[in-house]
From TrEMBL:
Span of domain Orotidine 5'-phosphate decarboxylase: 9-225
Protein name: Orotidine 5'-phosphate decarboxylase
Lineage of the species this protein comes from: Bacteria, Pseudomonadati, Pseudomonadota, Alphaproteobacteria, Hyphomicrobiales
Catalytic activities: orotidine 5'-phosphate + H(+) = UMP + CO2
EC number: 4.1.1.23
This protein's record includes keyword Lyase: yes
Length: 235
């Protein structure tokens, strides 16, 4: 299978402080990368206009803003986001917020992703936040809620991806952050996997930020990850 068929599987997180730096990174990555994540850091530095430009250039954009607010606010925010041409947008996996987001999306092509449990959190963090039970139990409960609400996919760590497929079914996307090539530092991520491990667990899209954008040769690292994805899929 040609490597170009794998490009949609890799989402590069442009977790950079300025639009100028993000634009430079996109130029460095060239045609090898077609899918980018624009998160909160870049969104508040002019990232929405930048995201629209990426769409105009034929790129796909994952707007990672993790919405959570009263129903009316979430619904109307998603109505506006749906007009921007984004491919994915994240909503925290609270049932009312997800239902409001689905109502706001309507018939638009935007795909809504439910954020289950952040990959920077482990069970001690959940306990400190007042949640009982394991990470896996909470992810599973939120994945089921996402399916019931009519969401298009979920965001979870690679550790939970295999079990979540049985919950969300074949029609929903599973997007996994916390991807680290073998030997790469984990940073603040606590539930991580290599690209091959995430694909083997059933992930549809892998979000990779710092291992690519902080590399001396970002394009080389992206190509290596794409090759690993291709190999994992072919097995």
């Amino acid at each position: 299978m040609p490597i170009l068929d794998m490009r949609d599987k890799l989402i590069v997180g442009l977790d950079l402080p300025t639009v100028a730096e993000a634009e430079a990174m996109v130029a460095r990555l060239g045609d090898d990368v077609v899918f980018y994540k624009v998160g909160l850091q870049l969104t508040f530095a002019g990232g929405l206009d930048f995201a629209r430009r990426l769409v105009d250039q034929g790129k796909k954009v994952f707007l990672d803003v993790k919405l959570l607010d009263i129903d009316n606010t979430v619904q109307h925010a998603v109505e506006n986001i749906a007009r921007l041409g984004m491919t994915f947008c994240t909503i925290h996996a609270y049932p009312k917020a997800m239902r409001a987001a689905v109502a706001g999306k309507g018939e638009a092509g935007l795909r809504l992703l439910a954020v289950t449990v952040l990959t920077s959190m482990d069970e001690a963090d959940l306990a400190a936040a007042g949640f009982a039970g394991s990470v896996g139990e909470l992810v599973a409960r939120r994945a089921a809620d996402a399916r019931a609400a009519g969401m298009d996919g979920i965001v979870c760590s690679p550790e939970e991806a295999r079990a979540m497929r049985a919950i969300v079914g074949a029609g929903m996307s599973i997007v996994t952050p916390g991807i680290r090539p073998r030997g790469a530092p984990t940073g603040d991520q606590k539930r991580v996997a290599t690209p091959a491990e995430a694909i083997a667990a059933g992930a549809d899209h892998l979000v990779v930020g710092r291992p690519i954008i902080a590399a001396a040769d970002p394009r080389g690292v992206a190509r290596s990850i794409l090759s690993e994805i291709e190999l994992a899929i072919s097995k």
